[in-house]
Amino acid sequence: MAIHIQWREFLSTLCGVAAAWPLAAHAQQATPVIGFLSARSPQDTTHLVEAFRQGLREAGFVEGRNVMIEYRWALGQHDRLPELAAELVRKPLAVLVSTGGEVAALAAQAATSTIPIVFIVGTDPVKLGLAASYNRPGGNATGINIMTNSLEPKRLELLRELVPQASIIGALFDPSFMAYENQLRDVSEAARTLHLQVQELRASADAEIDRAFETVTQQHIAAVTVAAGPYFDTRRDQLVALAARHVVPTMYHFREFPVAGGLISYGIDARVTYRQIGVYAGGILKGEKPADLPILQPTRFELVINLKAAKALGLRVPLTLQVAADEVIE
Fold first, then answer.
1. What pTM did the predictor assign?
2. What is the CATH number of the domain that holds 308?
């Protein structure tokens, strides 16, 4: 009799487990997947990816628990982005996040017209054709315009204030970056206003960055401004090291450069931006539509100065700049 009861209990338990299998399989299948497409590299964006995850957590999603993330990195090579985007959209994505500028966002847009996209770009997304308007994007994409490229003239102005004796300033551009021509035009116009001569420098490979700084030394160029772009973000340590080796004051676009030992930067705090796209991605997972989520723009820009780097360059930072700085590294 005891054996009979145990067998009945066993069958009951077995039936319960069997009934739960489809539910477990369904729950596993229902875990949403986010595609994360970046023009940059995992090494230079560790803190930014964590900020993205923080935004997701604020929206109620934790990677590995109730959301999965598929990462793809172009490592600063813009021509890889279309292939990586196409690879991602072959997966059952709930959201596709694109970071690292216009090329990544346009690759995402070309890969899908149905999967919701959250992007970060440095120029006007309406002009790029990514959205109908800022308030009502209207399609399957929304995100943030961090205005990085439009700040090139301001960076030149600040660099001139830092090195007032300079008559020639080098401007380093990545000619493979789609915003290059606009960046060059804006810097050239700003230089004329400031009565400065700008020497254009180009680099889209490591050896070309080395040669650009050799040119700076050979031509006695007083200072350099590095134009914004994902390729240069992936070469942050190389740029900072070359500026120090050639003893040339250099302006950058993100605070990570002076934090890494560079001299000065002016731009957004990218951690805030990545957190916000995490919040947007989480909202979409909850049912919000990209068409209804307004495209955001930063309202605050940071001036960061590394006084230790300035001392190594034999440079005296004007008190006016130190007072205006949001962060001074000593």
1. 0.87
2. 3.40.50.2300
